[in-house]
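Checked the freezer inventory, then went back to the computational side. Two predictions to log before the end of the day. The first one is the construct we discussed on Monday; recording sequence and tokens without edits.
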Amino acid sequence: MSTTAEKPASPNSGPPTSGVRTGTAHAPSANAGRKRKKSGRVRRLSRRDKIVLGIMVGLPTLIQLLFVWLPTLASIALSFTRWNGLDVTDIKSAGTENYEFISQNYPPFWPAMQHNVLWLAFLALIATPLGLLLAVLLDQKIRGSKIYQSIFFTPVMLSLALIGIIWQLFYNRDSGLLNFLLGTAGTPQAVDWFGDSNVNIWAAMIAATWRHAGYVMILYLAGLKGVDPALREAASIDGANAVQTFFRVVFPAMRPVNIVIVVITIIESLRAFDIVYVINRGTNGLELLSALVIQNLIGEGQVIGVGSALAVVLLVISLVPIVFYLIRTFGKEKEA
């Protein structure tokens, strides 16, 4: 029998807490709940925010409508009309006569189409591989790489009109650098590089290559920097040499860059205008679709309907690579 008496509980002591967890010890306070509600609430845009957002969205949209979409729609509409470009009341419907005229009775049209195709082939087979070669060489971390990049990229910052003027000094028949190097400057044997219709298209494409190669070089340099070095190491371990590693591993890994460059090359071949217009206004062997558009829309003897029809043809051809690029881009996003 135990003789130890139990101590009575102190009146000031609380209820026993051993093994018992109170319900109020860890309960969130009312203020914490309010704060959590406030942090999760979406703040409404103020009047100032709406004005700023409207300007940021509306101004570029307005500029795009005024200078791109409205002229485009106007050109499409005018391509089905006859108009001298002076009096709006003289606009008359012509149906498809303008398209029939340029395809059947307009002598410069088909040579211009051929020159645009030739321009595309030259940029794709000469200028683009040259830009790729420059990018690969400059990616080898050679001394002075940044200087070389600046030198090759400098033509990209110049307009094609200015490039045409620069190359006129190089190709000049009597005092040009090229004929001087060939030893024919000032002689009857000197070649008129921009005046001879048999060679001027090639001279103009070389001048355009000078600019296009630098642009392609920068794009491929960015693509090469994004290739995982582990891919090259794995190819080296498998016994692949530098050429095999590039064409079988590195080049396929730059597929997004390749698609962009293909689209850019096609568009550049179609929008070539400045250089041939500076040389001889796109005549005498330098006919291009873009030059024909300007010849018919501006100057004496302007034919607005024919010029608009040529512009629409150029627009439709240009949309093909753009639509292809958009389909490939958004198709990949859906697959992801």
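The second is the one RB wanted added to the comparison set:
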Amino acid sequence: MKKVTVLGAGAWGTTMAQVLADHGNDVLLWGRNVEIVSEINNSHTNKKYLGGHVLPAQLRATDDIKAAFAHSSVIVLTIPAQNLRAVLVEWKNYFAPDVLIISTVKGIELTTDLRMTEVILEVLGTHKYAVITGPNLADELILRQPAGAVAAAPTIEIATQVQELFVTPYYRVYTSIDVVGCEFAGAIKSIIALAVGMSIGMGFGENTQAMLITRGLNEVARIGAAHGADPLSAAGLAGMGDLVASCGSALSRNRTFGEALGRTGSISDARSHVAKTVEGVASSSAVVEIAHRVGGEVPVIEAVADVVAGTITPTQALERLMAISTKAENFIR
């Protein structure tokens, strides 16, 4: 049994805490909301985020951040991407030098264009770190439906350590040393899911979706390769797997937001339909900047960013994509 602390008691944080508890770890879940913390401890539910689902009885929660850090030397971050830096600065003095930081956060920081592990290292300095990523919709994983993920770290030893913490009969975890490729894939899939959602909202079918998914995956691989990642990481769970789940499920915030945007053509109307954070909306412009710095051609991502910025409509975006000259279909060209 390992002691593990999960920071963030929303849908995703609570789901990760359940997975870790189901493995037999001693898990302490931290949240700011005192009522949610009390509910988890006393009723073993988190109704605000997970309905009536009953959590493991051994899972404990706290609103005391000092107690959360004192509990273990393994810290799992489930904080929204655009809030990560602020909370890391707030908690900086609590991170012990030997702590293992596991990021489950997908996204690109808007103000710096940094990946989440880059934000972690910039704020906290040198630490042992890893990421968990893949096609893991919280509403399905909390029901213990079979799922897979990737534990990526700078060394196979750290990746294996993380794998051993999370694996359960319903959660299959693979290892990788391609942190860059896995993080880019997890961040960029949200933008492709927006594009797919827009096409659905506009009334188009599976052919259009398949084109956007496939060409979007090419852009994921291209950006990763330009930053030294293995382009084939885009074909695994962190890339294609997460992309399929995000583009194919009505549970995906990004796809749902895209559908509303495709139907109405209005960002404000889409926001009224999806009130929660939609990472693809937040990060699309940042990913375009990242791609352009390395000379990458990313027409699908550019089209989404322009729609989000309000400079073109979803119809104009698709028309623009269909007018681009085609070349030989090579995976990262």
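For RB: The domain at 187-323 is CATH 1.10.1040.10 (N-(1-d-carboxylethyl)-l-norvaline Dehydrogenase; domain 2). The beta strands are 3-7, 26-30, 60-62, 74-77, 100-103, 128-133, 147-152, 171-176. Let me know if you want it refolded.
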